[in-house]
Amino acid sequence: MCKKRNGFTFVEAVFALALLLVVASVLLPLFTQIMLERENIALKAKAQQILDAALYEENIQKETTIVEGRTTFMIRSDYEKDNIWKVCVRWNDYTGRRAERCGYVKR
């Protein structure tokens, strides 16, 4: 006589494990991309803080370099027409893209 048995067969367990591995292999690159973009947003916020500080500083050099952790921020300033002062901050983010933020102040 055959008893009624509850539980998974070996094939069902292997299929469930394979399905889990496929889902994990699809989501892992997306998760790492999301983490990189999150760090890039933090870099953009830091660059904005540096830009704000540079705009309100009276005696800033024409070119200045600031190193924060793994990132190097380059500040460039010059006067444009009508006594408008332009300050730009450049950096490379964690994906290798070059980014820049600029601000203008009338002096």
TrEMBL record:
CC per GO annotation: cell surface
InterPro entries: ComGE-like, N_methyl_site
TM ranges: 13-36
Pfam families: N_methyl
Domain of life: Bacteria
GO process annotations (BP): establishment of competence for transformation
Alphabetized UniProt keyword annotations: Competence, Membrane, Transmembrane, Transmembrane helix
Subcellular location: Cell surface
Protein name as catalogued: Competence protein ComGE
